[in-house]
């Protein structure tokens, strides 16, 4: 099931309301909640038994209507929209928050606060933007060094916002686990000579995410 919500914040819902937990996923800076990547993650996770809710930040919802590209909202507004979505879901069942790139970053910044006061079990980052493209010195890892909430980061080995050889030098909390997508870029697309396909890496990402959620529920 893929149901579009008509709430002020646009949402897409996949999976059964009887699922043991909801994965609340936000999109990245440049692509909407119904991008091929987000659709593959949501549908794949729903197929293996999870309820998945995708939502759009204000700037992307406006962009969908106007057709004109605009920069992301500032972080306080992004966090507020995410928080409102968590509040609407956490009263119903356990929630795992996360998202693609910027969406995952926002989730990771909120994770400790929300896990302390709401039914939020963990965080999944699908391609974390460890630094802006071409600016490896501008790290976005300060909070990840002290993260208390179980956090899974799925990262392409050749991600331009954090390659494996770069990320392995960073100081990250023991609560942050990394799973490398072979030969993958920021959206896990592998090189042609790797022998892998984009679909295979996306399927693997669904499997890793689902297994992480199962561990959260069983702990």
Strands in their spatial order, largest beta sheet:
1-2-4-3-5-6-7-8
- The CATH class label is Alpha Beta
Order of helices and strands: EEEHEHHEHEEHEH
Total E-strand runs: 8
What is the helical fraction, as a range of percent? 25-40%
Average predicted local confidence, pLDDT = 95
Please outline the major beta sheet.
Answer: 8 strands, mixed
Q: First CA to last CA: what distance?
A: 29 Å
Low-confidence region ranges: 1-6
The CATH homologous superfamily: Alpha/Beta hydrolase fold, catalytic domain
When the domains are counted, the total is 1
| CATH structural architecture | 3-Layer(aba) Sandwich
| Shape estimate | globular
Question: Proportion of β residues?
Answer: 15-25%
Structural class: alpha/beta
CATH topology: Rossmann fold
Rg over C-alpha atoms, rounded to the nearest angstrom:
16 Å
The helix tally amounts to 6
């Amino acid at each position: 099931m893929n149901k579009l919500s008509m709430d002020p914040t646009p949402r897409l819902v996949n999976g059964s309301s009887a699922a043991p937990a909801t994965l609340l996923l936000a999109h990245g800076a440049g692509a909407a909640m119904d991008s091929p990547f987000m659709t593959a993650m949501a549908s794949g996770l729903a197929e293996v038994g999870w309820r998945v809710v995708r939502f759009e930040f204000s700037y992307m919802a406006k962009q969908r209507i106007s057709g004109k590209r605009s920069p992301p909202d500032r972080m306080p507004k992004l966090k507020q929209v995410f928080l409102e979505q968590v509040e609407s879901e956490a009263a119903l069942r356990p929630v795992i928050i996360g998202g693609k790139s910027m969406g995952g970053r926002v989730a990771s910044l909120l994770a400790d606060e929300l896990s302390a006061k709401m039914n939020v079990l963990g965080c999944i980052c699908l391609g974390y933007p460890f630094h802006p493209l071409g600016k490896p010195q501008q790290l976005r890892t300060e909070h990840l060094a002290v993260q208390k909430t179980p956090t899974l980061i799925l990262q392409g080995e050749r991600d331009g916002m954090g390659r494996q050889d770069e990320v392995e030098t960073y100081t990250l909390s023991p609560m942050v686990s990394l799973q490398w997508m072979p030969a993958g870029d920021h959206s896990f697309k592998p090189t042609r000579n790797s022998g892998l396909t984009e679909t295979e890496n996306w399927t693997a990402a669904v499997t890793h995410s689902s297994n992480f959620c199962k561990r959260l529920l069983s702990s």
